[in-house]
UniProtKB/TrEMBL annotation:
It comes from Simplicispira hankyongi. This is DNA-directed DNA polymerase. Keywords: Coiled coil, Membrane, Transmembrane, Transmembrane helix. GO terms for molecular function: 3'-5' exonuclease activity; DNA binding; DNA-directed DNA polymerase activity. One of its GO terms (biological process) is DNA replication proofreading. DNA polymerase III is a complex, multichain enzyme responsible for most of the replicative synthesis in bacteria. The epsilon subunit contain the editing function and is a proofreading 3'-5' exonuclease.
Length: 705
């Protein structure tokens, strides 16, 4: 516009005569500044109008196109927001109608596919149920050693092997897509795999291998390995091994117990042999009639010492055996009504008196060792009948807060507290049979209490037991029910087809890679100025699936105060990080959790700067490739006004939960990254190398911290 005005002025000036030019010059001579200002203001007004028109008629269609592509790639119902001109709003409504028709068709197709694959789903459900209920630790790997299935028991076993169990709970060792070699020696497993391959080649129908190996922390694992072979239909059994099933048992305690028992028996036999030899020698010497009294007393002392030594060894063995008997019985879930009925039958048979049930809670579940608890009730009942001539017994069972309350009630003569204490502490006897357990041992085994009470109004007395209830909550260290579906999916059989060996990471498709999506919360926004990490949260993506059951979430003690301005943002106060591990403990465990994956973060330069500043202090270096959803959002949506996490989540219809918590932001970022992958593919960006190169060309790649 400026050039056009100058050109038109020059053309008009060239058409003027000399006198006209003088006249125009005289008119404009005193008004040049006014003309220039008016000319500039006119240009500004024209530019503003053009900007508005550009945004309305050029930028808005571009933004609508980008949002329409998001709707096209979305797997869940999603709609455009009508805006812009009337025609643009009508177009957005038409796109929404088309998307709704597609979603309905997709839902119909999904319903038909679900109906057609119902039998397959039932088989999967059966497998999931079987794996969840097994007491054996089971891990299934593909031929490259990548884990594609594990059960809850295996997770608990690997938690015990973890170097930082209080931080990651073993998730840095066990997870879908992880390498089993992070926990077990590659050479040991390779030897077992080789033996199985040889057995398969020879036609063995069920080839297996078994070995015991030492793992982290001096733990001993017994591992049984079985082959998973490719299906060959009705033509026969395939010899191609596509994976392996590992069944693991932690035998550290049992080996230690067996070793201690063997040492005890060895000491008993060897010590007794020596003692018997000494006693025999002393007895032989005592057989001489002319032995002096002093010498006789000396040999008698040898006999007494050796007999006492043998007695001590036998006593030690008996005490060890009794202690093992006290602790070896597991507690199992049992319906309280069933236990009461069993106790009624046994008491009636052993005590020879009527036994009634009163106020038995029919829905109460107990966690008990039913055998020893029945022994304790029978022992108390027989003593009541034999010593106090009790003529009837009664059992009551009810809930008492977080415990169950089991009462053994009788009527008749009362007893003293000293009698009750002696019955409680004495070893239980049943006629000529004797057990090393006492009633107190049984109560302690259940982690409960037992006492004696009198009901003076009813002229009755009772022994009351407080017993543990069967809990429906997960075991300590396991995932909460709110975090997992009722049947956790800890498997991904698509990994059987994994062919990642021999392919460069940079040239592999984005959809095939494993990712650790993470976020940090910090004391402030200046990493180089001394701000530090106070929380790390991360989740893993394997085979295009977000594994919500495999997460990392840990508070960190920064060793400095948290700025008051940042507390309202992340909600982490100073007292919350007190007593938490420092970054020197947390970072190595997080490094193991993220091992062999690509790191993904939103505004990754900020988070990586905090990690890099800790490299020298912790010795932990993150060498994995890093992808930034902020930069890649700008690649696929260059015309959008904002690339903040909330704005991207809104465009992708991703629910934002736990904003400004490390794990919450990591999960949102992971959902966004899964939606970015197909949009990048539409622009010809398929590999990790292409994604990193495209990200570096954006404006936001200039951000430095």
């Amino acid at each position: 516009m400026a050039l056009w005005l100058v050109l038109m002025s020059a053309i008009v000036w060239s058409t003027l005569g000399a006198s006209e030019r003088e006249a125009v010059g005289e008119v404009l001579a005193g008004r040049i500044a006014l003309v220039f200002v008016g000319w500039v203001l006119g240009l500004i007004a024209v530019a503003a109008v053009l900007r508005v028109l550009h945004q309305r008629y050029v930028g808005a269609p571009h933004r609508l196109l980008e949002e329409a592509r998001v709707v096209l790639a979305a797997r869940r119902p999603q709609q455009l927001k009508p805006r812009g001109t009337r025609e643009m709003q009508a177009l957005a409504v038409a796109v929404n109608e088309l998307a709704a028709q597609r979603d309905r068709l997709r839902a119909d197709m999904d319903a038909q596919v679900t109906q057609a694959s119902e039998r397959v789903q039932q088989e999967k459900d059966r497998l999931a149920a079987l794996m969840a209920e097994l007491h054996q630790s089971v891990v299934v790997c593909n031929h490259a050693g990548r884990i594609l299935l594990y059960n809850q028991r295996a997770r608990q076993a690997f938690r015990a092997l973890s170097q930082g169990p209080q931080l990651a709970g073993g998730a840095e060792l066990l997870g879908i897509g992880r390498s089993i070699y992070a926990a077990l020696e590659r050479q040991v497993l390779a030897h077992a795999f080789e033996r199985i391959q040889q057995a398969v080649a020879k036609g063995d129908a069920r080839p297996t291998a078994q070995f015991v190996t030492a793992v982290a922390g001096g733990q001993l694992l017994r591992v049984q390995v079985a082959a998973v072979r490719a299906s060959q239909g009705v033509l026969g059994r395939s010899t191609e091994v596509t994976g392996f099933v590992l069944m693991l048992d932690n035998v550290t305690e049992s080996v230690a117990e067996e070793s201690a028992r063997d040492q005890l028996l060895h000491g008993l036999t060897e010590g007794s042999r020596a003692s018997l030899a000494n006693i025999q020698a002393a007895v032989d010497m005592l057989g001489y009639p002319d032995i002096e009294p002093a010498m006789r007393e000396r040999f008698l002392g040898v006999v007494r010492e050796e007999v006492a030594s043998m007695g001590k060894r036998v006593t030690d063995l008996a005490q060890r055996s009794a202690q093992r008997l006290k602790t070896r019985w597991p507690l199992e879930d049992m319906l309280g009504a069933d236990f009461a009925a069993a106790a009624q039958r046994q008491l009636g048979a052993r005590c020879g008196c009527p036994v009634t049930l009163d106020a038995i809670d029919p829905v109460l579940w107990l966690k008990v060792d039913s055998y020893t608890l029945l022994q304790a009730l029978t022992y108390l009942g027989t003593r009541l009948v034999d010593e106090f001539e009790v003529r009837f017994l009664q059992l009551r069972l009810a809930r008492a807060g977080a415990h169950a309350q089991l009462d053994l009630v009788w009527g008749g003569q009362a007893m003293s507290n000293e009698t009750v204490m002696s019955w409680e502490m004495d070893a239980m006897r049943f006629g000529t049979e004797r057990t090393p357990l006492s009633v107190r041992d049984v109560v302690e085994r259940h982690g409960g209490e037992m006492w004696f009470e009198r009901e003076r109004v009813r002229h009755q007395a009772l022994f009351r037991f407080l017993l543990p209830l069967a809990s429906s909550q997960p075991a300590p260290g396991s995932l909460a029910a709110a975090d997992l579906p009722s049947r956790p999916e800890f498997y991904d059989f698509d990994l059987f087809q994994s062919m990642e060996e021999g392919r460069e990471l940079e040239d592999r498709p984005l959809a095939e890679l494993a990712y650790t999506v993470f976020d940090t919360e910090t004391t402030g926004l200046n990493p180089s100025g001394g701000d530090a990490i106070i929380q790390i949260g991360a989740a893993r993506i394997v085979n295009g699936k977000l594994l919500r059951q495999e997460t990392f979430d840990q508070l960190v003690n920064p060793g400095r105060s948290i700025s008051a301005e940042s507390i309202p943002i992340h909600g982490i106060s100073q007292h919350m990080v007190e007593g938490q591990p420092g970054i020197g403990e947390v970072l190595p465990v997080f490094h193991a959790f993220a091992h062999d994956t690509v790191l993904v973060a939103h505004n990754a330069a900020f988070d990586m700067k905090f990690l890099q500043l800790q490299e020298e202090a912790t010795g932990t270096v993150f060498r994995q490739p890093v992808l930034d959803t902020l930069l890649l959002s700008a690649v696929v949506h260059p015309h959008q006004e904002s690339h903040r996490l909330e704005a991207i989540a809104e465009r992708f219809n991703v629910a934002v939960l736990g904003r400004h918590t490390a794990l919450g932001d990591a999960l949102v970022t992971a959902e966004i990254w899964l939606r970015l992958i197909p949009l990048l593919a539409e622009q010809g960006i398929h590999t990790l190398r292409q994604a990193r190169e495209a990200a570096q060309k954006t404006y936001y790649a200039r951000l430095k911290y």
